[in-house]
């Protein structure tokens, strides 16, 4: 799945399949300007930062179990969001410090370090990487991803795929080759 925020005409948090199909709103109320998103891949939770409502909130992948983690004026200056173990990590754009926030109670906020210039944060650790499994976009015997001549996108599951073409090409009737 692909998760993303939108604060155009109607602010929301959405998800869809990697090929763009099955687009679903998972949060569309009491939300104004969601600017950062982080996923807990193990427990299947979506965290987001709303700088207009000055809050960090969480829901499960279906948009249920919504909770506010923390709220207040300090949220207005945050950018980027990452989750690892018991904490959320973000950047305070005012003083360029990395903040660690307890994701269960939101009260334990700690400044960890200062940076020269940052707008995004990511946690790279072996435990945060999902185990690789075989999937529909693996290269076929001819080296074509999922048998697609240009682009292979996972669809509704790791066993399903959709072929797409680069700009200027159209997908052939076989659903794999581009012309």
UniProtKB/TrEMBL annotation:
One GO CC term, this protein: plasma membrane
One of the record's GO molecular function terms: Wnt receptor activity
Matching PROSITE patterns: LDLRB (PS51120)
GO biological process: canonical Wnt signaling pathway
LDL-receptor class B repeats by residue range: 1-43
InterPro entries: 6-blade_b-propeller_TolB-like, Cueball_EGF_LRP_Nidogen, LDLR_classB_rpt
Name of this chain's protein: LRP1B protein
């Amino acid at each position: 799945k692909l998760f993303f925020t939108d604060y155009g005409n109607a602010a929301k948090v959405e998800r869809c399949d990697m090929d763009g199909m099955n687009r679903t709103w998972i949060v569309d109320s009491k939300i104004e300007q969601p600017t950062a998103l982080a996923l807990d891949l193990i427990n299947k939770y979506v965290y987001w930062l709303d700088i207009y409502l000055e809050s960090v909130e969480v829901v499960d992948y279906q948009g249920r179990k919504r909770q506010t983690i923390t709220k207040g004026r300090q949220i207005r200056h945050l950018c980027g969001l990452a989750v690892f173990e018991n904490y959320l990590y973000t950047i305070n754009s005012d003083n360029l410090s990395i903040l660690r926030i307890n994701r269960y109670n939101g009260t334990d906020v700690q400044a960890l370090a200062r940076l020269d210039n940052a707008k995004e944060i990511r946690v790279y650790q072996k435990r945060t990487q999902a185990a690789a499994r075989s999937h529909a976009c693996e290269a076929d015997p001819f080296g074509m991803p999922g048998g697609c001549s240009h682009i292979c996108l996972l669809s509704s599951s790791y066993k399903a795929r959709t072929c797409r073409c680069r700009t200027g090409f159209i997908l052939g009737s076989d659903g794999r080759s581009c012309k």
